[in-house]
Amino acid sequence: RKEVEQDPGPFNVPEGATVAFNCTYSNSASQSFFWYRQDCRKEPKLLMSVYSSGNEDGRFTAQLNRASQYISLLIRDSKLSDSATYLCVVAPGAGSYQLTFGKGTKLSVIP
Amino acid sequence: NAGVTQTPKFQVLKTGQSMTLQCAQDMNHNSMYWYRQDPGMGLRLIYYSASEGTTDKGEVPNGYNVSRLNKREFSLRLESAAPSQTSVYFCASSEGGDSELFFGEGSRLTVL
Questions:
Q1: Which chain B residues contact residue A44 at CB under 8 A?
Q2: In this predicted structure, what is the pLDDT of residue A39?
Q3: Residue B5 has what pLDDT?
């Protein structure tokens, strides 16, 4: 089983739609979780960290399910500008330098 | 506000040639990293430097060397380039550990 797995997509959704991505991880000892966003031919940028209690930032909601070893990202009211690849990132331990990146899920928001 | 700057942005090499990718950050971060990104593979860690004076191997270190020149600069060297090293290389920095990574714009390397 790969360490961090994501559905590669692409997810093609109309503007205003709600879309959800899941990411599973294999290391049950993983401590920290993140979602990064990467625009085409650009560098990744942190979208949000994922906390045990779940967290929300505007239209974005991230949740962690430790029992099932997955994290999710929910985007509400999709905008054209949300079109990007979303990378799931997992740290194997607290303070670990060797983050594991998923291959990414591509989202295209269509007018 | 430059953040993380890496050079060159594009490079074409012939098999066996050597080159160095340069990276500098102006955020006073302790930790710096080199990743490569290939289609269908995601980002993979080549080397990292947790703090000035230290370097450690990541997931795919073979064929690469690094130097943490000072707190600001972290270079990646290919001694004898191979076609398998054709990739997009990203330098990143962070305050440390599993903190937010700040990436440079990437360096696209083609080895013929």
A1: 43, 90, 101, 103
A2: 97
A3: 97
Rounded distance, CA B69 to CA B103, Å? 18
Selecting from B59, B98, B104 the residue whose C-beta is nearest the C-beta of A95 gives B98
Tell me the chain A residues in contact with residue B106 when contact means C-beta distances shorter than 8 Å.
41-43
**Residues contacting residue B112 through CB under 8 Å, at least 6 positions apart:** B12, B13, B14, B15, B83
Closest CA in chain A for residue B59 = A98
- Rounded CA-CA distance B84/B98 in Å is 29
Weakly modelled stretches of chain B, pLDDT under 70:
1
Structure tokens at A51: 């906390």
Q: Does residue A1 surpass a pLDDT of 80?
A: no
> What letter does residue B73 receive in the DSSP assignment?
B
Inter-chain touch B101–A46, beta carbons under 8 Å? yes
Q: What is the pLDDT of residue A94?
A: 74
In single-letter form, the type of residue at position A14 comes to P
Read off the pLDDT of residues A32-90 as tens digits, 9 standing for 90 and up.
899 999 999 999 999 999 988 889 999 999 999 999 999 999 999 999 999 999 999 99
User: Per the CB < 8 Å rule, is B98 touching A46?
Assistant: no
DSSP strand pairing (B87-94 vs B102-103): antiparallel
